[in-house]
Amino acid sequence: VTDTLRFGLIGAGAAGSVHAANLARRIEGARLVAIADIDGQKAESCAGEHGAEAAYAGDAGLLAHPGLDAIVIATPPEVHGGEIEAAATAGLPIFCEKPLERTLARANDALAAVEKAGVKLFIGLNRRYDPHYLHLLEAVRAGKIGRPLTVRLVALDPVEVFGSTPRPPGDLFLSTTIHELDFAELLAGPLESVYAAGGVMAGGDGPVIDDPDTAITLLRFESGATGAIDNSRISAHGYDQRIEVLGTGGMAEAGNLRADDTVRTDGEGEHRAGPLYFFGDRYRRSYIAEMQAFVDCIRQDTPPQAGPAEARRSLVLALAAAQSYREERPVRISEVG
Ligand SMILES: NC(=O)c1ccc[n+]([C@@H]2O[C@H](COP(=O)([O-])OP(=O)(O)OC[C@H]3O[C@@H](n4cnc5c(N)ncnc54)[C@H](O)[C@@H]3O)[C@@H](O)[C@H]2O)c1
To answer: Which alpha helices (H) appear in the chain, and where do they start and end?
Structure first.
């Protein structure tokens, strides 16, 4: 491995563009050299914008690009498994966006390929690197609020981001709730069961057994603590991200980040800026920190903080929530894996 790692990126969509910009400019010891997307024009324009030397249409050609040291996968979940297997076979360390895959069977195959090849796999659970949430996590873990009794995580996406895009059944849980499930376990230990209810509310017709745009997932931890995750893709007030933990000795809260914290009061009431609107803005520092951590763990040959075990566990939790929603009953995590 050379001093500066040469990166290939697969998938130049919303998440891929964030990683491309960071790799090109903000990550020490990394250089973005090649980009692939099934849409060749997207690959071309992303490569042009971020100074990569090559663009490929599809995901096959990229791995043969000369001198690659690492791969970032930011394609839709159902192609992650095949791409992980191919990159592992090529002997390259892999950063893969969450979720690991859409099914546990495909995830297990991908993990087997990673283990066989002996390459590093790093999963993009970026909340683990968010300085704002890390302050709260550190306080809870240091026992500053005593023993956690309840945790509440809120993650609402603005309607423009996902509103009209059809998604496979259960996608809300695999794409969004997965972050909160993962963070909930960091806060309060292993989950025993989840119970999700929601519906396709945007159309106004109430619950439909498909991919809900809005859901609440109730949590039961092995410790006996309880929790709830609120998710929606129709948040008219922006990208709303909050955590609240009640403990035996107090409470910890991480609220929304705003572009401007001024509160102006006039005859009509109090006014201030809403939450940062785009996920790339709210979690900007976490995307940089997670990619820097990936680069550092390759260069220093240390294990990833969120590697194969965390990738699989978070998928299991999300699949349990999706199953609970589908079957309208609480699901024990051990039923899934
Ligand atoms: N960590 C986060 O906060 C975060 C935020 C957004 C998305 N994501 C994750 O990133 C991944 C991508 O999501 P997105 O929102 O960027 O989706 P997107 O649809 O915006 O982008 C996906 C890109 O992959 C391309 N693509 C599809 N199939 C391909 C293939 N076989 N080979 C090459 N390219 C292919 C598409 O053309 C598209 O450009 C998902 O796993 C998603 O869950 C994570």
So the answer is: 14-25, 40-50, 80-89, 104-117, 131-141, 159-162, 171-172, 178-188, 279-282, 284-299, 308-327, 333-336
User: Which pTM does this prediction carry?
Assistant: 0.96
**Confidence check: pLDDT of 57 > 80:** yes
Q: How far is the CA of 16 from the centre of ligand 1 (A)?
A: 7
Q: Using the mean position of ligand 1's atoms as its centre, give its distance from the Cα of residue 118 in Å.
A: 26
Does ligand 1 lie within 6 Å of residue 10's CB atom?
yes
Kindly give the pairing relationship between strand 94-97 and strand 121-124. parallel
Cβ-contact 73, 97 below 8 angstroms: yes
Q: What is the amino acid identity at position 52?
A: A
Parallel, antiparallel or unpaired: strands 226-235 and 214-221 = antiparallel
User: Best substitution site from 9, 37, 310 to test ligand 1's pocket, by max atoms within 8 Å of Cβ?
Assistant: 37
